[in-house]
Amino acid sequence: MMGQFVLCNLFHRPVRTLIGVLAIAVEVMLVITIVGLTSGMLQETAKRIEGIGADIMVQAPSAQMFMVMTGSPMPIKIGDKIKELKYVQYVSPAFLQFNTSGGVETIWGIDPASFRDVSNGFVFLEGRDLQGPDEILVDDWQAKAKHVKVGDTYTLLNHDWKVVGIVEHGKAGRIFVPITTLQELVGGRDKATIFLVKCTRPEHTNDAIDEIKALLPNHPVRPVKEFMSLMTSSNIPALQTFINAMIALAVSIGLLVIFLSMYTTVLERTRDIGVLKSLGASKLLIVRALLAETTLLCFLGIFAGIGLSYVVRASFLKLFPTLSILITPEWMLRAGLIALVGALIGASYPAWQASRKDAVEALAYD
């Protein structure tokens, strides 16, 4: 009986019901997409760092959790000192420049020969490795996003580069240029952002780390395999705050829409509530009916929001092929619970108001 009553109430005003479902769906979609976008990009970046094949990464003293994305804080000659250590086989300097013109991307300036030693080289889908000073490699995702092919001119940092190769994604960055050319363009001659280190044997990684720390006591030295565990929103300054703020905004939207929807529902059903009370309905029964209606509305919105998240992800990936959006069952459940709690809070006051209405006054309401 209660279920039939709730369903009839929902379908009595289909447009308002649809608006409520859409509000919950947008709330759920925002939570899933925002978290999925940040966690997806972090995990994808970590996989690309681990995909280099190096054992150790040496950073500058000023580096935060991961790496300095701009600037060139270390003399490149440090690499020669690291290479002399007992458990170090190869060292490759990398110069990283964060570029925001035409998109957010990190340019990797590399020395092709030493980078091959450390990483076993790229997997080429087209073209060849870097040879000249104005040549550039892009991975397949970047090539798809920018619609470039081997032989094209790629303008970056107000400089024209010739695309000589398209490589398989998953190793370091998406854009690779000769380190010396990039140093000259940004005023970082003989500087490096990070050093990639290959040990004599994988089991010597900890020994090599101890040697490097003794040589460079103020420099962060990390096993590359740690980057996946380090790549979390809580380890990046202000990122978790941003995620929490966006979730709070999404919840506020859902809560306000549900509150407005249920409040107008109570006003429209004043006479109906009076009839129920005259027939002996208790306050608890009326509150339960309205909260049950909200719960059903919320569940419809949650399922719609999960479906909408996949639609939004597909649209984003079509427009921006280099993005990575990770949708997980854990955050589907969290987003659903957040939406449900917010909706019930939003419906609580209207339900309480409905339960307090006097039966005689409600029946006389016009």
Can you walk through the features of this model?
The chain has 366 residues and is an alpha+beta fold. The protein has helices spanning 2-12, 14-50, 78-83, 112-119, 140-146, 179-186, 205-215, 227-230, 239-268, 270-278, 283-319, 329-355, 359-363, and strands at 56-59, 74-75, 88-99, 105-110, 124-127, 135-139, 153-156, 159-167, 175-178, 191-192, 194-199, 221-223. The protein has 2 domains: 2-43 and 238-363, no CATH class; 61-219, no CATH class. Helices cover 55% and strands 17% of the residues. A hairpin with a 5-residue loop joins β3 and β4. α2 (14-50) packs across α11, α2 packs antiparallel against α12 (329-355) and α9 (239-268) packs parallel to α12. The radius of gyration is 29 Å and the shape is elongated.
